[in-house]
Amino acid sequence: MTLIRFHGELNDLIPRPMKHRAFGFRSAEHATLKHAIEAFGVPHTEVGRVLADGAEAGLEHAVAPGEAIEVFPALPWVPDVRSDAEAPAFLADAHLGGLARRLRLLGFDTLLADDSPDHLLAALADDDGRILLSRDRELLKHRRVARGRYVRASRTDEQLREVVRHFGLWRSARPFSRCLACNAPLRAARRTEVLDRLPPDVAATRAAFTLCGGCGRVYWPGSHWRRLRAVVASIMAEVPP
Question: Does the global pTM surpass 0.85?
Answer without folding.
Answer: yes
